[in-house]
Design a protein that fits this description.
Blueprint lengths: L7 E10 L2 E7 L4 E5 L6 H9 L23 E9 L4 E9 L11 E6 L2 E2 L12 E4 L11 H15 L3 H19 L6 H36 L8 E6 L1 H8 L2 H14 L1 H7 L10 E6 L4 E2 L5 H23 L4 E4 L8 H14 L3 E5 L13 E6 L2 E5 L3
Parallel strand pairs: 3-13, 3-14, 8-12, 12-13
Antiparallel strand pairs: 1-2, 1-4, 4-5, 5-6, 6-7, 9-10, 10-11, 14-15
Helix pairs in contact: 2-4, 3-4, 4-5, 4-6, 4-8, 5-6
């Protein structure tokens, strides 16, 4: 890598991960194309990279499902990553307890420069990452929860602590739900949990609103430059409305009051009915003035790609570093003009982008310096380019 400000993986090592019994891959480019037949391991490789960021990766799989066949006791991922400040070594892995039936004792380990971390949230301090997968093609027409989680990943690339706040809110909310079902509910402890929920929820809502404002401004300023459709974005949520209308301290007090007033219906429902976990990310297809969920599948995919590219540019403008992009089967249904527009945008952006496709010819328009690999049965071979 010649650009010292580039955020990029320079070496990736996999051990017993999915269909990779062992892989060591050295990378020298910021555009990487992986081609090969279905089932060869292209998406598995992207999934491994995604696990170097906070959370459960692009598939959200259980950790025990990631171990290679015949090696179900463990898996490991390690990478050397060039960041704007210095090179860092990131690693994560999973192993089953000595008692193979004791899944509760099994755990994921995260290591940064040789030091074990408390959680995967620490990875957010070193790497910013976004991904697109074929499963997301109908994101706008699917459940609100999928859109909300997608938005939170966008927000986390602006604010690495956002994922931790969401995790705290969800953990405390689960504790409150359990306490509501206890016939000997401790009112003081319940009020304490609700105070913690209110603090986390207001911080989550404020971060979402800030990220949406920054992204929408960037979309507006650059929409004429993109071959992909632009979107109008917003968030629909009770707590976000409170935060937009009043100071944070008042919003916390108001949500805390709402939680206290909702104890009876929440107890009856078996869950918390009001909060940032109920918000929805709203996207309108700008050129058509149409809700994204009502657009065709192809239009939704193009809109989603345009949104990701605009967001990556916005993050670079704010943080002076472009996020790593994992784009699974991104070019398969794009016409030539949009493929060339995608490659040109990625080149100008400076993101390290990992792209997959069954047909290697889809990537012939990549700029000089890109690396192309053929993937087959968990092995990679670099292809020479003309």
């Amino acid at each position: 890598m010649t650009d010292s400000s580039l955020l990029a993986l320079t070496r990736l090592t996999l051990t017993n991960f999915r269909n990779y019994s062992g892989l060591r891959l050295d990378v020298s480019a910021h555009l990487i194309a992986l081609s090969g037949p279905n089932g060869a391991g292209k998406t598995n490789l992207l999934e491994a990279i995604s696990l170097l960021s906070p959370g459960r990766g692009l598939r959200g799989a259980n950790f025990d499902e990631l171990a290679g066949l015949g090696n179900a006791a463990s898996w490991a991922i390690a990478a050397e990553v060039n960041t704007p400040l210095h090179e860092v070594k990131l690693g994560t892995g999973w192993s089953l307890a000595s008692d193979e039936a004791d899944y509760a004792a099994a755990g994921r380990v995260v290591i940064i420069d040789g030091h074990v971390q408390k959680s995967s949230g620490a990875l957010g301090d070193y790497i910013r990452m976004l991904w697109l997968t074929p499963a997301m093609d109908r994101l706008f027409a699917g459940p609100a929860g999928d859109r909300r989680r997608f938005l939170d990943r966008l927000v986390a690339t602006f604010d690495p602590q956002h994922s931790s706040r969401v995790a705290v809110f969800e953990k405390v909310m689960r504790e409150r739900n359990l306490l509501l079902h206890d016939s000997r509910t401790d009112a003081v402890w319940l009020a304490s949990l609700e105070a913690h929920m209110a603090e986390a929820a207001v911080a989550i809502a404020a971060a979402r609103l800030g990220a949406i404002e920054a992204l929408q401004k960037h979309i507006h300023d650059t929409r004429s430059e993109s071959v992909f459709p632009w979107g109008l974005i917003s968030i629909e949520g009770e707590i976000e409305s409170l935060v937009a209308a009043m100071p944070a301290v008042r919003a916390e007090d108001e949500y805390r009051r709402l939680l206290a007033d909702s104890r009876t219906p929440d107890r009856a429902a078996g869950r918390t009915l009001r909060g940032t976990h109920r918000s929805d990310f709203i996207v309108i297809h700008g050129p058509k003035s149409m809700p994204a969920g009502q657009c065709s599948t192809g239009e939704q995919k193009a809109l989603l790609i345009g949104l990701i590219l605009a967001h990556a540019r916005a993050v670079k403008a704010v943080a002076n570093v472009a996020p790593v992009l994992l784009l699974d089967e991104v070019a398969a249904h794009l016409d030539r003009q949009r493929r060339e527009g995608l490659f040109a945008t990625l080149s100008a952006l400076g993101s390290q982008a990992w792209m997959t496709g069954t047909d290697g010819h889809l990537f012939e328009g990549l700029a000089a310096g890109a690396q192309c690999f053929h993937v087959d049965a968990g092995t990679l071979k670099e292809m020479k380019r003309a």
